[in-house]
Amino acid sequence: MTVKSRGFITILTGLYSFQDCIHFLASVRKFHQEPIIILIDRVPKILYPLLTVFKNVILKPAPANENTVLASRLAKLALYEASSEFEKTIYLDADICLLSDINDVFDSLDKYDFLLTEDVQPKIVKATNLVRGKQEDTLPNVLSILQSVGLPLQEDSIQYNGGFMAFKKTESTKVFFEKFKYYFEIVKNNQDKLLLKDQGAFASAIATVRPKIKILSPAYNYLNKWKDCYQKIDEPIKVLHCTYPYRPQSAKDITNSIYTRVIDKLAKVILPNQITNPWRKK
User: Fold this and answer.
1) How many domains does the chain have?
2) Does the pTM exceed 0.90?
């Protein structure tokens, strides 16, 4: 196999994010020509050509699961193996839109194993989004709940947003993904206490392996839904994390074309409403 120097990867499990993925591909191709791998599951093959219209798109099977949210979590665990063609990989969720090129992220991987962004609520001790129950009841006990199931987290542990990550092929990165899988299995086996999310397992793997990481500003993973949670950002937003229906018009203009307009019209007829995706409630 010929190893390319760098490339992108995303995940598409089920039809709920299909429209987002089309616009994701359009935004990447606006600024980059590197290969894009899509880990895909539960999408009819008749729709595959709508994705490969964009040049240099590689479709690979994601771990299959009826629960499309769990399938996407399992696919994230498989990113290291799936991106084996690349020395440097940028992973982005399919509901992301690039607003400019991010060549500087690839360049920074010369010095670091991982480039990450913190979650809008970075402190694990306040991560009520990871545990079951009402926020007011669980807030005082988040850390003890996470520790009780075997996650090696401490008061200073950080929650990262897994919608963006960049990594390079190193032994440290390989070990990290092995630990990520191990700790996610703990999360999956403790669904009576934990929600089916990967941030706790991700933070545990970071704490265990301690790869050489660089934390980027929210400009590289700007969650528009939570914009009121950010302090002033003194640089242009490069990576907008927001499902297509809720994007500002300036972001929609970036991916606007005859092709995407046709897809948007078809989406209203043939695609399920991703906002009401029932698997998100599991």
Assistant:
1) 1
2) yes
